[in-house]
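Hello,

I think I submitted the NAP job twice by accident. Can you confirm which output corresponds to this input? Input:
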Amino acid sequence: MPQQTADPVKIAILGCGTVGTQVIRLLTEQAEDMAARVGAPVQISGVYVRDTSVERDPVVPRDLLTSDLAALIASSDIVVELMGGIEPARTAIMDALGAGKAVVTANKALLAQKGAELYEAADAANTDLYFEAAVAGAIPLVRPVRESLAGDRVQRILGIVNGTTNYVLDEMTTKGLPYDEVVAEAQRLGYAEADPTADVEGHDAAAKAAILASLAFHQRVSLDDVFCEGISSVTAADVAAATESGHVIKLLAIAESADDGVTVRVHPALVPLTHPLAGVRGAFNAVFIEAESAGELMFYGQGAGGAPTASAVMGDVVSVARHIAGGGKGPRESNYADLPVLPISAALTRFQLRLNVADRPGVLAAVSAILAGKGISIETVRQSAGAEGTAELVISTHRAPEKDLDQMVSDLRANDAVNAVLSVLRIEGE
Ligand code: NAP
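Support: Only one job matched these inputs. Its output is below.
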């Protein structure tokens, strides 16, 4: 290893949980490599926790624990925020940026809700704000979108960015199990939180979608701009019907650009088995990007977990430490595009409808007429026998405006030949 003569770069770690502990381990175990890569020694200046007397993982040096946040920030060059949530993370980061410190964070919730003020504070202080771990854990995604694709035009992003929901849908698909049973098993195995709402209702994926859309389309997109529908209403029958039509159900984060604006949405969707995202199994994440010149790109890997997420945090720490040791600065926020973020009603999507209908002549014509009345044309229809005197219709449509969907479903429900609209799922990736 080369001899280091430069001043050490001092790192404050805020939060000592799943990710924080692994970052501390890597900074300690790989200190020599880090110094060689950065060009200066990299030292942990302290670890901010609520209670310094609590027993911690043995990799955390006890003498580094502190509950004096202001003093820790003041004595550090880089502040690595790994507490999560809005407060006190927001105030800590704003204080750090205000004092000219570089910041690394994994906090998707904070970036999706308060990103604008953080970017502005970083720009005002001419310092770095890095957040690779905030989207899809270990997968290098923020840097490729923010830097590698900065000379291209991203048209569309389709992502599986929540491991819990991918695990649940995958188990439902491969084992034919009902939603509740799989969620309970995921909680037992530690793949799902005791309160799984943020994952299963799509809020976590929506935060990541907002961050990715902001970077890809060079404009501000916040959590409130993202249409969000979770997987809690997906049934075993939906999964079986998807398999029968050559699809798999995935919770997708979708960001698309058009001339008149961008749409950003999270919802379950039928993905054809031939699409690369269909093969993403278990708790893995993957993001599929379509760019004008690059064409199709796919990023795949572990979207969560202490060590995988710490890998992404460490990459940011090295980048920022290199700037401190050798000069330079990472990219500023790019938000010049200023396009409107359109409501989901502006999106054009294909649907698969599952209907229970009366098994009598003329029903298909009546259903077709309702769809045609909304300008929605049918691509395929599959009919199978239902309970006595009924049939199940599975109808796939061509692309149609989302704005007509709710009314079309209401019209179907109001028709006396339709016993039930069993499900309406969007089809993506075809
Ligand atoms: P975690 O295990 O819950 O740890 C959070 C840590 O922050 C705990 O040590 C906690 O202290 C500390 N903390 C929370 N509030 C605090 C406060 N008010 N003052 C001082 N300390 C406070 O969380 P995590 O899973 O490591 O996640 C950290 C960040 O990484 C989050 O933003 C999360 O979204 C992001 N992330 C996590 C993953 C993952 O797989 N875990 C993946 C990607 C991104 P106590 O020890 O006292 O509870």
